[in-house]
Every structure is written in C-alpha cells, then in structure tokens.
Fold this protein.
Amino acid sequence: MPTKVTAKNGECLCGIAVDAGFLNCEPLRALPENSALLSHDLRDGDEVTVPDRVVEDFPKAIDTKHTFKLKSSPPFNIRFVHGSAALPYRDDTETTTLHVSNFVTNLGGATGLAALPAGFGFNDDGHQDPDTFKVEVWDPSAGGSVNVKLEALKPGYTADPISGKLTATSFTPFTDAGRKIDALVCNVVSAGTDNTFRSKYMRLVVDEQDLAAVAGQMLLTSDLADGLGTGGAADNDSVEILDQMVRATYIIERCTGSPKCKVTKVADIGGSERQRVRVHFHAFRKDPGVDTMPTGVTGTVIKQHLRRRTFKWYRRVFAQAAVAPKLESMNVVDPPAENMLCISHSHGRPLPIGSFVALSFRIKTATRDLPVTAPISSAETPLIAAGIFITFLPAGFTGEAILCPRATNAANASCDLLITADNGERVTLLDVTWPAGVGMTIDVPRVNLMSVKSDDASVDGSVAFLSIDMKRLLRAVPVTDDAMFCLVVGGFSTPGLRGQAFPPCLGATVNFRPELPFRSSTIMAYTSRSGPVLDGGDNLPFTSPHESAHILCDLVHTKPGANHNRTELLGSGTSVANSVTATKRLCDGPYLITISQNLTTTAVDRTVRLADVMRTGGAAKMEAW
C-alpha cells in the first residue's frame, strides 16, 4: 500500500521518488493525494504520498543465462561548503552558516594581500578566507557543468505583542536584481569528481562597490535603511543583514514535470554568533526648547538622519563581526547650561600655600539673579576647593563636585562643580571672577555647538583628551557602561575633526583611567571640513562606526605604513567615500593587523583580529540576538 513521507525544506518530489526507487516524480505527481503539493515548493511537514512500486514478472528458462538491466535514477543534492585541500568532495563538511567577508573584496591569501582566485577548484589564496564558500551540486546524470540560482532572502518580521521585539518568521526573495545570481556556474573541476560540481570561491558583501569588485563571485546581503522607520515589522529600517538567508537552488533537468523539480539549500548569516550592541543618541538643540539643531535642521530630520546612518553604515560595517546596532533611544536635548565651574582644568593645581582669595559670580535663572562670594584659603586641591565653594551657595541651589580624569603629569585631578536650582530652573553662571596667577584656575564652559573646543591648547593632559566643552557636554546626558552613547553637535573648533571617542583606556594605570561619563561615549560632529558626517547622505560613511569601534575595542588607530592600514575601520582619518579599499574592514583572520593602544603616557603596538577584539571588549554593551 502507498506510504507517507514527511518532506523537509529544500526537498522535491523527484528526490523523494528517486529515494523510493522510481526514475522520476511522475508516479507521485499522478496521485490525487499529492495534487496540492504541485503548486509550491515542498516545505517542512508536507506529507507526500509515495505509491507502491509495480513488480513485474519476467518468466525465463532456468537453464539459460539472462541479463537484466535495472532502470534507476541516481540521487542528487545541493549544499554549501568551504572546501579543503585534500578531502574528496563528498567528505568535505557542509556549511550551514555563512558570514559577511572581512577581506578586501578582491583580495585573499594568508596575508590578505593576494588576488582572490577567479578559477574553479581548490586555491589556497581563496581557502585562507574562512568566510569564502562554494555551492556544490551532486548530480551523476548531469554534464560537465550545471547552473545554480543563488539569492539573498528578505526576512519578514512578527512583533511580540508585549515587548514589541521583532522576530524573523518568513523569508522571500528581494525584488532587486543585485541580490541574486540567476545562473551561477558550477563545474566538474578534477578527476574522480565527475558527479560533483562546484562554483568558484564566493563571498557575501554588504555594499554595491564590493558587489562589483569581482564579477560573479559576490552576493549582496545588505540593508534597506531609509531612516523613516519607527521600529515596526514592515519598516525598511527593520531589515537586518544578519536576519537574511542565502538560498541556492538547482533545477533537476531530467524531471519530466512542469514546472521541473528543484532542490534547494538555505544557510543563515552569522548564526549563533550574532550580537546586538545597544546604542543611544543625544543630539543637542541650538537653543533651549527650540526645535532647531545647530546646523538648522529640525529634531525630526536629525532623528531620521541618525537612524539611516546607523541602520545603513553602522549595520554594514559591524556585520563583519556578526554584530548589529540596537537603537535603544533617540533623544533631542537642550544645549548644556552654563552652570559648571571647571577647577584647575587639565593641570589639577591647588592654591599655593599662604594664598587667600575669593571666587565671585552671579547665579541667574528665570526668576532669580543672586550674587555669590566664596573665599578660600591656601593649599586646597580642586576637589576640596569645590566642596568649600558649595558651602557658600545661596538657599535653593545645590552643588555637585565631580572629579575629572587626572592629567598624566599632574599630582591632583581637576574637578568640575555643577550648580543646579532645586526648583529645576535652568542655571547660568555670570560675571565669574577669579584672580590670575594663583595656580588654581576657574573656567566656565560656554559651549558653541558649531565650534566645540577641540584644539590642542583646549584639551587636557588626561588619557581622555577632554576640553571643558567636552566635559560639559558629556555631563549633560546619562552615560552607562552597558551601551554606546553618541552625542551629536554641529561641529568642532578643529574643522577637520569629525568625532571624538572616549574609550575605557584599560591599558592606563588605574589612577588615570577615566570614570563615567568619560568612557562608553562619543561626541560626533554633524558636519566637518570634509563635508557632512551625520546628515541624510553617504559622505564619510564610516566615521560613526569608527568612533564606536575605538570604545568597543579600546584601541586607537592602525599603525601607519603597516599592511591594511588604509583599509581597516580603525585607520586614522576614515575614507570620505565608500570604495573597495575604503577604511571599512574588521580584520578577522587569518592575518592580523598592527594597531596602537593608549597606556598612561605612551602607546603600545598590538597585533589583533579586530572583529574578535570588538566582540570581547564590547561584550558588556552587547546582548544576544
């Protein structure tokens, strides 16, 4: 009697028929029980009815030798492999998870500097990249080559009704032609493999420039980001590179059905290695309560720009490490108030012994304007001085003394004194008077958001390289170590500066390591001398991920003149435009890159796999997929 076979994704009626001993799928197609299966590819759980084979009798004389020819069809298969130097093809391990390539697209080899092989068969320069793959077809009845369709599949999402978390629950082909190869050639390439066909070395890439770098050997698995999303399942911004699938399809030419049977194999991208790095943005308004940013755009527009930049370029670059951004919050905030005293910024000097001076200033709010005089005696450290100044504040105001990162050549840390109104009014400090030449200095940050102080004369001598403006900006937002925090201003006083990162500096002596908020954060310019940095376009696409990588990796820049210096993400001065050789790669072996790490007063060269360092160094800021 007929039997039932439970199908799996990628199987076809011909394959099930051949396994049951039939020549093709005609007997299965003819059964009414299978009629509903003829209109779609077989899926997990489909019940296929397999008829009994007809057994024929051939009466023959028993005293004569007779020859019988069994008509059968050999089985066939398709899969992804990386390949090996010596194993027979069928003994190679199947690859079920693919990865975005970390190599410069047209290069390979153990040092990442050889040409990517353009031929079929094993080649060590292609084999050295662990992310290359090949499509393999096994079909003993095929000729010298076969064609396979290779395509990226777009995830469709379902939102959790309580948390809103999106989960990929369906996959369909992308509609644009760049994300598929309709006829990927697979050849028989060596003696003894007549039944097995393989493609050239293939790579997954995330942008059009890499796609065009080596014709026919790249598959585009990229984003659709437009910055218009709100976190919904159908948003273009929601389409993750690492949620996509890659499908290979082989049509069985000997199938007599219409349409012909086909076998498919699907691989995911990133697999169990996938992680999300939590990201918060705080973009400063030009004026308090006014919906205009320093560069003239509105808060709505800058949010769109930041979303697009993050979900496009941040996502593309970090996909090489199987990491993607998780945008936790997008905040448009008032500019920092002028309510902070920086005491002995950079140098940490106390008052000389025998000094007796006074600090005077006005505290102005919307409803009050009060004078303050705070006398102080000699030999007080900045922290003690801040505590004394607090005791002279008028009723209704509170002071908070906060130590700054200590300058590497200083005996004491400098200190910031934040003065706030108990009723929540915005505080401005005016007419600040402090005598010159007494060692200790007093500064008030009055931040120009189009020219945030960043020149050598303004930054301190700590491992964080802070100006008084940077300190005030960072103290204006909540910063924690469990996420990346990006503050957005109009520009820096150094026009060429595009962003400033504040890494943990774990290589520095403990006493000099920065405390929060002077780590886990970046200050990014919206525009620079090299053009826009965070607008709605694609100028300087790698600057934002570059600055975040400083923090996640706790590293500075690749060593000038070393191999891959100008193609790695942490190359100094990120590329203005995207290209195959732009500063966008995350080294992940087999070669290492030379890169510097800040110590207390010096830097040391390290040789690292950048993707590994990012995943381990940034682990506290990441979460499971």
Notes: The two ends are 47 Å apart (CA to CA). The longest strand covers residues 145-159. Residues 3-50 form a domain with the Membrane-bound Lytic Murein Transglycosylase D; Chain A fold (CATH 3.10.350). DSSP finds nine helices and 32 strands in the chain.
